[in-house]
Design brief:
The complex is a heterodimer of chains A (248) and B (460).
Chain A (H helix, E strand, L loop, with lengths): L2 E4 L3 H6 L1 H13 L3 E3 L9 H6 L2 H15 L4 E4 L2 H10 L1 H4 L5 H7 E3 H8 L12 E5 L2 H6 L15 H6 L6 E2 L15 H4 L1 H17 L4 E4 L2 H13 L5 E4 H5 L5
Chain B lengths: L2 H10 L1 H23 L4 H17 L1 H14 L3 E5 L2 H14 L4 E4 L3 H5 L2 H7 L3 E4 L2 H9 L15 H12 L8 H18 L2 E4 L3 E3 L4 E6 L3 H7 L3 E7 L3 E2 L5 H13 L6 E5 L7 E7 L3 H5 L15 H5 L1 H6 L10 H11 L1 H4 L11 H5 L6 H14 L5 H14 L2 H14 L5 H4 L20 H16 L1
Parallel strand pairs in B: 1-10, 2-3, 2-4, 4-7, 5-8, 7-10
Antiparallel strand pairs in B: 5-6, 6-9
Helix pairs in contact in B: 2-12, 3-12, 9-10, 16-19
The chains are: A alpha/beta (248), B alpha/beta (460).
């Protein structure tokens, strides 16, 4: 049985354990052995995105040591996987095992579709769902077709959600606009960040969504913060929770 | 003031910020429809990027070829190292011809060089003849967008400005009425002008010709009536051959406004009979960008403005919040190259969503360049002490898994017990409009370990 090294982003480990557990369930149900390297912490993206490469470098090096030995590496986050696949070159290019690491590191939905070949999910999810396209999954990992490009449409998260019995995916006015989280952007540009988040929420509400989902909990954490402050009824769930059949 | 507080000011008038966002999103949507109508769109983008990469790699040769060809056609070519030289050249030309009134069509380069105030200080009347540019000129402002200079003005604002400066009826907001008033006003200016200045969209090395794209025909009026035509261009405006124009003209207007082509695409090959054509080629920092592997591709830019229209930050913060002649994503790359001291904050005014890179007709990897700028600027010492210290502390903790686990456990135990005022205050920008997540008692790793222990005991 192939072994997946489970890569759980730091904030999911600390704040959203249910998302991690749902990821384990999905991978095990798909027939993989799941190992969680205990010494993992953070991939270094916050430092890299702030321009602090010296602070990001040791974390990239730790990542290669911790995850280099698995058959696959899977994370329930497009953003953190994009850090490894698209931005680790700066720190690890030429290191033994790095090219292999990039080739075997996947975002969860991408892994379920492209590697595990998941073609059916047995449970029902009778809800109106809005799919928020997280930017790094969309435009770095190309998990779906971005609306700017003139090319055939596809979407891996959407493909999986549509396997659920009873689900209704709503149509958004702006199919893939950024929610405004953006890491330190969320606090450094607080006003713009919150307006972007509110506009995304409004789009989902107008489309009639009961639940907003995404590949990345960071986007949802930001929007859930706005939703809870404004006491709105829209719920957020990470896509792993929905696919694993966890209750709303 | 840096971008973030100016953006917050813009957003403080929320209905206006929403209107600004929706207006520009409408332009982005028009662009999408226009692009989708061409099945070969992505091929065109590839082609345009390749032509630009080739041109920039052989720029010196193409510039010389252009100079020879343009000179052969009777134009005079001037070289300006920087903005000051550009302005001096233009002023000297105007003084030589005793020009007192100059009409200008759209030129972001002259905005970059701050030509208008320089000429006005020397007693020359400068009239921007692009309607949007005229509106902001009358308002005493700078353009807030490179294609739609007055996009931040509502028709009510334009009515007030025209009432004050052009004597239109008080309270008038009808766009047709206001445009007609501007037309009459500008016709007078065209007739009175002693010289016309235009920008340049494309300069063709092979032919020595230049191409100017407008929707109002103002470049044509401004160059047909006066005898002297000055055209100012950045040295990156060059393309090798006339046949390359087809690629760029097809991309430009579709990307900019969703039109298949601009209403006027004017080709100038040397001066008209009896006239003079002066071409001022400006470097102003472009060679330095050319010499930098990381940022060279930013010279591909054809100034279509699509990255502004798609940028979720630009749409909600307005062009003026960038405090640079070219705002938005491309401006945030170009400005720090010219002056990092002033513009170091701009690459952070971005959520790294990447929409700009996908919309760009010449395939500039804008969001990756913005990320590269963050690194460069941090190395140059332009990162705030609080951000740097925060990142150093995070990195320290993340390199020590035991410390990370303990810190997490303490935070998850402590924060929910704190009084609300200690968590939500002015030191916590996250919490100004947002709740923090609900902290779980156990982390994922603790829950997984517990589950696996239970699972194993079941098996036994």
């Amino acid at each position: 049985m192939p072994t997946v090294g489970l890569f759980i982003p730091c904030y999911i480990d600390q704040l959203y354990p249910r998302v991690g557990l749902a990821t384990v369930d999905l991978l095990e149900r798909a027939g993989f052995r799941v190992e969680y390297p205990e010494d993992q912490t953070c991939c270094g993206q916050p430092m890299a995105n702030t321009g602090c490469t010296a602070e990001a470098r040791p974390l990239a090096e730790r990542f290669l040591t911790l995850f280099g030995g698995f058959d696959y590496v899977v994370a329930p986050s497009g953003s953190c996987v994009a850090m490894v696949r698209c931005h680790y070159d700066e720190y690890l290019a030429g290191r033994p095992g790095f090219d292999e690491l990039k080739a075997k590191t996947f975002e969860l939905c991408e892994f379920l579709v492209d590697v595990a070949g998941v073609a059916q999910i047995s449970h029902r999810f009778p809800h109106r769902v809005g799919l928020h396209q997280s930017c790094h999954g969309l435009r770095e990992l190309r998990l779906a077709q971005s609306s700017e490009l003139v090319a055939p449409a596809y979407g891996k998260a959407q493909q999986l959600l549509q396997l659920l019995d009873g689900i209704e995916l709503v149509t958004l006015a702006r199919p893939d606009e950024c929610c405004g989280f953006g890491g330190t952007f969320a606090v450094a540009e607080e006003a713009v960040s919150c307006m972007m988040g509110e506009d995304r929420i409004h789009d989902h509400e107008t489309a009639g969504a009961e639940i907003m989902t995404a590949n990345d909990m960071s986007c949802l954490m930001h929007m859930a913060g706005l939703i809870r402050r404004q006491k709105k009824s829209l719920r957020v769930m990470h896509i792993a929770e929905i696919l694993a059949g966890y209750p709303v | 003031m840096s971008h973030a507080p100016l953006a917050a000011q813009f957003i403080a008038d929320r209905p206006r910020a929403t209107w600004h966002d929706q207006t520009l999103w409408f332009v982005r949507s028009k662009r999408d429809k226009a692009a989708q109508a061409l099945p070969e769109w992505e091929e065109l983008r590839e082609c345009a990027a390749a032509i630009k990469a080739h041109t920039v790699a052989h720029l010196a040769d193409y510039l010389e070829q252009f100079e020879r060809a343009a000179t052969n056609r009777g134009a005079t070519v001037h070289w300006a190292r920087d903005a000051a030289e550009h302005n001096e050249i233009v002023l000297r030309l105007l003084q030589q011809h005793q020009v007192r009134r100059l009409v200008k069509s759209k030129s972001m380069l002259t905005e970059e060089c701050h030509l208008n105030p320089y000429l006005e200080r020397h007693g020359i009347e400068v009239v921007d003849t692009d309607l949007g540019e005229r509106i902001v000129q009358l308002a005493g402002e700078a353009p807030s967008h490179i294609v739609l200079p007055a996009i931040h003005k509502k028709k009510e604002d334009v009515g007030r400005i025209f009432h004050e400066h052009l004597g239109t009826a008080a309270g008038a907001t009808d766009p047709n009425y206001l445009a007609e008033a501007a037309r009459h006003h500008l016709r007078q200016k065209f007739l009175q002008a002693d010289a016309g200045l235009t920008g340049v969209n494309f300069a063709v090395a092979e032919t020595g010709g230049i191409v100017v794209c407008t929707n109002e025909g103002n470049a044509d009026l401004g160059t047909s009536l006066p005898r002297v035509h000055i055209a100012s261009m950045g040295i990156e405006k060059l393309i090798p051959r006339a046949q390359d124009l087809g690629v760029f003209v097809r991309l430009l207007a579709r990307s900019a406004t969703g039109q298949p082509i601009t209403a006027y695409t004017s080709h100038f090959h040397g001066p008209r009979p009896g006239g003079e054509l002066h071409l001022v080629l400006v470097d102003n920092g472009r060679t330095a960008i050319l010499g930098n592997d990381e940022f060279r591709r930013s010279l591909n830019c054809i100034r279509c403005g699509a990255c502004m229209n798609t940028c979720p930050v630009y749409r909600r913060s307005g062009g003026h919040s960038y405090q640079t002649s070219v705002p938005g994503p491309i401006g945030s790359i170009l400005a720090p190259a010219r002056d990092p001291q002033t513009h170091y904050d701009l690459p952070q005014a971005c959520s790294l969503c990447g929409s700009c890179s996908d919309v760009c007709p010449v395939k500039i990897d804008l969001h990756h360049q913005l990320l590269s700028w963050r690194r460069e600027l941090a190395q140059l010492g332009f990162l705030s002490a609080s951000k740097r210290l925060g990142m150093q502390a995070m990195s320290f903790v993340f390199q020590r898994p035991g410390l990370y686990r303990t810190a997490g456990r303490v935070a998850r135990w402590l924060v929910p017990k704190l009084p609300r005022a200690l968590v939500y205050n002015r030191f916590n920008p996250w919490g100004r409009q947002r709740e923090l997540p609900e902290f779980p008692r156990q982390s994922f790793r603790e829950q997984l370990a517990a589950r696996r222990r239970r699972g194993q005991s079941h098996e036994r």
